[in-house]
Amino acid sequence: MTQQAERSELLRGIRAGLLELLAEGVEVLPRPASLPISVATQRSPEATSAPGASAAASNAADELAAIRADLGDCTRCGLCQDRQHIVFGEGNPNAAVVFVGEGPGADEDRSGRPFVGKAGQLLDKMIEAVGWKREDVYICNIVKCRPPKNRNPEPGEVAMCQPFLERQLRAIGPAAIITLGKPAAMALLKRNVAITRERGIWQEWEGTPLLPTFHPAYLLRQYTRENRQAVWDDLRAVRERIEAR
């Protein structure tokens, strides 16, 4: 392929991507990120080049591995009875942003990975639209096994998984947490949350800024321009807050 043909193919791909974002309701794109939305955005260049920087990254990954080992082949609640796979979480162990969802669905239960179904595909688009990459963030859920028929996790089920979730968050030490949907916000804030009123309002979890927003599955059900814009505004607010650090 000639250089001109390669350039034409690249431009077609960019145009197709922009048209897809426009169809999703995204009308304004942020400036490209100068650094991945990872540990690099939390530390100065001197800190990231320091001898201990790689050790810190390794420690976070090791701690997550230890948490997964402690979780084991979990039978702490009834969700273990029908699951195919435990869905622990995945992503950058030193991510600046952690997305916390509700629980695995059917696709996630089959694959053992979080947010890989239709809601996950929409989440990927949301992440990319704000200038991030999925591999730069960390994604997990408040429960690690699929609730039957994708119902909301029950309080006892959340209570069994919560220590592992909180250990994950402490190991990663993100600059911000984004909760997806009401159950995730309630689990970390430890109170009832009216998600339609409280999305987009900054909260805190153990001193870490936390922003509740709509779950991608809700957007798929209520796919209005207003809802899409709301989530877009929330993710942009998180990015701006991190970049201002």
Outline the structure in words.
A 6-stranded mixed sheet has the order 1-3-2-4-6-5, sandwiched between helices. Helix 3 (51-71) runs antiparallel to helix 6. The protein has 10 helices and 6 strands. The protein is an alpha/beta fold and 245 residues long. The protein has helices spanning 3-23, 45-49, 51-71, 106-111, 118-129, 155-172, 182-189, 195-198, 216-221, 225-243, and strands at residues 90-91, 97-101, 138-141, 176-180, 203-205, 208-213. The protein starts with a helix and ends with a helix. The longest helix has 21 residues, at 3-23. The model is unreliable at 28-35 and 39-51 (pLDDT under 50). It has one domain: Uracil-DNA Glycosylase, subunit E.
Descriptors:
245 residues; Uracil-DNA Glycosylase, subunit E; 6-stranded mixed sheet; alpha/beta; 6 strands
**How many separate structural domains?**
1
The main pleated sheet reads as: 6 strands, mixed
User: Can you name the CATH architecture?
Assistant: 3-Layer(aba) Sandwich
Q: What is the CATH superfamily?
A: Uracil-DNA glycosylase-like domain
Spatial strand order of the main sheet: 1-3-2-4-6-5
Mean pLDDT: 86
What is the fold-level CATH name, i.e. the topology?
Uracil-DNA Glycosylase, subunit E
Rg estimate, integer Å: 19 Å
Q: In DSSP terms, counting alpha (H) and pi (I) runs of 4 or more, how many helices?
A: 10
Order of helices and strands: HHHEEHHEHEHHEEHH
Poorly predicted segments: 28-35, 39-51
- Per DSSP E runs of 2 or more residues, the count of β-strands stands at 6
Overall SS class = alpha/beta
Shape: globular
**How much of the residues is beta strand, in percent?**
5-15%
Distance N to C terminus: 44 Å
The CATH class is identified as Alpha Beta
- Helix percentage range: 40-55%
